Amino acid sequence: MSLDHEAILKAYPNVTLVDDGTGAFDANGNSVTLEQSKIDAARVELAKLDYQQKRADEYPSVVDQLDDIYHNGIDAWKATIKTTKDKYPKP
Questions:
Q1: What is the pLDDT along the chain (91 residues), one digit of tens a residue?
Q2: CA torsion sign, 49 to 51 to 55 to 58?
């Protein structure tokens, strides 16, 4: 069984260890019962954060964006930004 470690850790903040073979455990070594619906909801939240981070990493700096607007106009700037938005759409 392959568990989605990142989603489990987001859904269950008390979990400190996720083991594909045996499940999830808290800091005291107690087994934590996992609910698929909570893990799925956490997966959706992580997807939202992922696209936001990817966009932020790829956008030009604010200084470069302002320079682009000054030299090329708003429409050219919008085209530049749209490229990144299209590459990383909202989930």
A1: 456 899 999 999 999 999 887 899 999 999 999 999 999 999 988 988 888 999 999 999 999 999 999 999 999 999 999 999 999 998 8
A2: positive
| Cα–Cα distance, 37 to 68 (Å, whole number) | 45
pTM reported for the whole predicted model: 0.58
77: how many CB neighbours lie within 10 A of its CB?
19
Type of residue numbered 29: G
Q: How far apart are CA 84 and CA 69, in angstroms?
A: 16
Q: What is the dihedral of CA 19, 25, 28, 29, to 10 degrees?
A: -50
Residue 46: name the closest of 85, 2, 4 by CA: 4
What residue has token string 């749209």?
A: 82
